[in-house]
Amino acid sequence: MSIVLKVYNSLTRKKEVFKPLEDGKVKMYVCGPTVYNYIHIGNARPAIAFDTVRRYLEYLGYDVLYVSNFTDVDDRLINASKERGESVIEIAERFIRAYKEDVGALNVQAADIHPRATETMDEIIDFIKKLVDKGFAYESGGDVYFRTKHFKGYGKLSHQSIDELKVGARIDVGEQKEDPLDFTLWKQAKPGEIKWESPWGEGRPGWHIECSAMVEKYLGNTIDIHAGGQDLSFPHHENEIAQSESLHDETMANYWLHNGYIRINNEKMSKSIGNVVLVHDLIKQYDPNVIRFFIQSVHYRHPINFSDELLKGAEQSFDRLRTTYNNLQHRLEVSADLLEETLTTQYQEKLSELKTRFVQEMDDDFNTANAISVLFDAAKEANKVLQAENSSRLLLTHFIELFDELTGVLGFELKQEVLLDKEIEDLIAKREEARKQRDFALADSIRDELKLKGIILEDTPQGIRWKRAVSNDENE
């Protein structure tokens, strides 16, 4: 179905035709969170963006092996352990569960493999040892460092030269590097810290080496796609390339994908400013489908500005799509006057055109923003069908199937499975009886009462149609 899938490669800074290492299969690694706290909306963006990339690749028929790690040991976890009086492992376990709950609510599919640094320690130590043996790394004062200048391609991902990178590079107190640009592979344990035995004494790995070891263990020396947030491009991904390609003498990844930043009310998200938005809190205030829709309304490489006002606008837009979808289902379920005719050539072509346009937009570096525009065009066509005096049962079904197919790629759900509780059912029945008795004042009063309960009623020739309000405050 795909015309030609093109992917923007951060390494070459251009769109390239996607060609996997092995026909029909894709090996994909996405850098996951450091699990010392609840994730914020910035952490959720790569989870959503690259879940969508995975979904689209699978939609095109690829068998995707998707690996996304948890960093469950680093300075932030150790500091949190000291502050809270809990072990690093206990904190990591709690926030891995929280992460899975939060992104699960956003309809992010679990990775095929979720490796953890603490469960990959033998491979990490072996990886470092091989780098030392090849002369790319050295032990100094109980720490092990990577010789950055020994890797000739250093800076190729961030498009910086060694001379440019030297500016601002320094050796911190306690470090015994040969060169300020060298980075840590293994850290000597401090008293009371979590630690592992190694050829260089007790300690723990540096951050960058963890991903190189996990990629090698679960996906091999060379993979198709390596992805993560824009903030990881340098130094994390740059250092991964240096480590992996120095050891294997092979390309680490053929395509590097990076999502853009999220700003909060046009400001950088920062603890010091106090504007960090936790997903854990946000999904209590908004339908997670709306949050995912909002994130995907902007191309994954572009920055997003987040605010309550913008999210409420996205909520209203999403509700228009959901209303059309629910109306299609309602018409199909309750209308007795539907035609049983076959699909006309006109609508066969229209449905095919909409699907083709959707694929073309997604083929253009996974352009979800334009793909969503196609959904709204589909809604316009569906509303014409709904407004027609007579509609085809088959046509309504095909529009529902189109929405299901395309929103399945984007990972949000339009279907609204809501059961009215007994009180609301009784109120609707009471209102219908009032209308029959021509007590329109009572009928209007009940409608207003239901509105306060978040239920909007619509009187149609086919009967009463209802939907949930976008928010409890209809004046917003």
TrEMBL record:
Cofactor(s) required, per the database record: Zn(2+)
Pfam families linked: CysS_C, DALR_2, tRNA-synt_1e
Name the record gives this protein: Cysteine--tRNA ligase
Domain Cysteinyl-tRNA synthetase class Ia DALR: 357-420
Keywords for this protein: Aminoacyl-tRNA synthetase, ATP-binding, Coiled coil, Cytoplasm, Ligase, Metal-binding, Nucleotide-binding, Protein biosynthesis, Zinc
Protein family: Belongs to the class-I aminoacyl-tRNA synthetase family.
Assembly behavior: Monomer.
Motif ('HIGH' region): 33-43
Locus of motif 'KMSKS' region: 268-272
Record field: catalytic activity: tRNA(Cys) + L-cysteine + ATP = L-cysteinyl-tRNA(Cys) + AMP + diphosphate
EC number(s) stated in the UniProt entry for this protein: 6.1.1.16
UniProt-listed NCBIfam families: cysS
Subcellular location as annotated: Cytoplasm
Record text on cofactor binding: Binds 1 zinc ion per subunit.
Annotated GO CC locations: cytosol
